[in-house]
Amino acid sequence: MSPEEFRRHGRQVVDWIADYMAGIESHPVRSRVGPGEIRDALPAEPPEHGEPFEAVLADLNTILLPGLTHWQHPSFFGYYPSNASGPAILGDLLSSGLGVQGMLWITSPACTELETVVVDWLASLLGLPAHFRTDARGGGVIQDSASSACLVALLAALHRASGGRVARTGIADRYTIYVSSQTHSSLEKAARVAGLGAQGIRVVDVDDRTLAMDPVRLRELIAADRAAGAVPAMVCATVGTTSTAAVDPVPAIGEVCREHGVWLHVDAAYAGVAAVCPEFRRLNDGVAEYADTYSTNPHKWLLTNFDCTVLWTADRAPLLDALSILPEYLRNPASSSGSVVDYRDWQIPLGRRFRALKLWSVIRWYGAEGLRAHIRKGVSLAQDLAARIAADPAFEVHEPHPLGLVCFRPRWPGLSPAAADAATLRLMETLNAGGSLYLTHTTISGRVVLRMAVGSPATEHRHVEQAWDDIRREHQALPIQRVT
Ligand code: PLP
User: Fold this and answer.
1) Ligand 1 atom at shortest distance from the alpha carbon of 145
2) Residue 242 Cα, ligand 1 centroid: separation in angstroms?
3) pTM score, two decimals?
4) I want to staple 346 with a disulfide (CB 3.0 to 4.6 A). Which of 12, 141, 194, 223 is the partner?
5) Secondary structure (DSSP) of 327-363
6) By three-state DSSP, how is residue 80 classified?
7) φ, ψ for residue 325 (rounded to 5)?
8) In whole angstroms, what separates CA 110 from the centre of its chain?
9) Cα-flanking dihedrals φ and ψ of residue 424, to 5°?
10) Which residues form ligand 1's pocket by a CB distance below 6 Å?
């Protein structure tokens, strides 16, 4: 494709995306295709001869679009938001257009140095401690996902807990990590990848009401494991759990970690970015004093297209010692001088995209006040919704719900818990199949609840109001006798 052809098709693509954004409400939120339908509509073999780009766009419209769930739809309330925004898309396009590979400082100094500046900016926007900044002992790095961030944190923690032996001998001791029943599954995956096995994962009880990790049980478990010969390596505290946005008590957990010399990773994938607003800075309680690593996802709720997780460390030395390997073909004078950052040593893969461009574009386009306004809008819409649900005697709301997530369920009087759960799931399926909104569910104390996560930049008051009307209407219309 010549630069002139690129210009022409690039304009078509930008127009296509702008039209998609403008018309997104015309699509059902959740895709309605069945398994295999998209695959069957595509040729089984690749073309022998090149095709015009228009043919790609035509297939996008006719074949792929029906198979998409529209995550940027203003009535998408499932999982957690996965914000996209104009400046982030353009930043990503520039990154693709440049096609640089930022594995080492020397392979594109601007790619590395912009990233350093942008993660330091974000640390300051979120009110994170000064020692997380790259000009101190710590530093931040952009990872593809929170899952990668926790794996990297675990490898650094194992390095420190073993005095560096893990790199030479592998997992020769019984290392343990501590999570709660509410911790994201990526921690279990990280433990598997690191070779700890199922016995290396210790699940700490949570408070029945808040679903936050119980620090007293954590202390008991660590002491018992240590007495039994295990080496407690890392605790993962979550600020904003995946299920209900519960917040673990980081200061109390941090005290336990300090007593036992255990690495504390704070996973704030969803909720951490809310700290751009001073009124949510309490989400950072204990981070400055106790966290060895901390991560949050601008790709969830901070207007930055997937993928963009930022991981900070209080002390980069164990991280770099754990992950740095220097083959001859990567040696260069800048790296040898020790005066530059080589982000390949801060992550699992060698290669890396220029992700800082999209985060930089977002922060510059919105400014701190625009980012705060976005978070405040999501929280305020969610709080309005929670108040409406709480005021309806046919529903109950799970407390607390301080951010953009509201968990609730219909009461279903007269139904057994199992029948009520089946009815709640059926209500959700009816709503999702209708295409006007998209909700997901979880369980709290063994009971099914619906989750409504508000936080898309396109969501306005009318979308939340409409969703609540739809929920009430379908709830009343559901033929529950057939469920019982
Ligand atoms: N941690 C928490 C608390 C999450 O809610 C999620 C995803 O929802 C993750 C980790 C995983 O995020 P990612 O998809 O970036 O790996």
Assistant:
1) 15
2) 7
3) 0.96
4) 141
5) -GGG--HHHHHT-S--GGGGSSSS----THHHHHHHH
6) coil
7) -135, 130
8) 26
9) -65, -40
10) 80, 145-147, 184, 186, 238, 240-242, 267, 269-270, 297, 309
ipTM > 0.95 (yes/no): yes
Residue 31, strand partner residues: none
Q: Which residue CA neighbors atom 14 of ligand 1 most closely? A: 145
Q: What CA–CA distance (Å, rounded) separates 389 from 391? A: 5
Quick one: which atom of ligand 1 is closest to the CA of 147? 16
* Ligand 1 pocket test target in 144, 242, 451 with most atoms within 8 Å of CB: 242
Q: How far is CA 185 from CA 105, 158, 188, 347, 403, in A?
A: 33, 19, 5, 20, 22
Instruction: Find residue 141's DSSP bridge partners.
Output: 311
Q: Tokens in use for 24?
A: 């997104």
Residue 197 has pLDDT above 90, yes or no: no
If you take atom 11 of ligand 1, which residue's CA is the nearest one? 146
**Tens digits of per-residue pLDDT, 89-117?**
999 999 999 999 999 999 999 999 999 99
Cα(11) to centroid(ligand 1), Å: 34
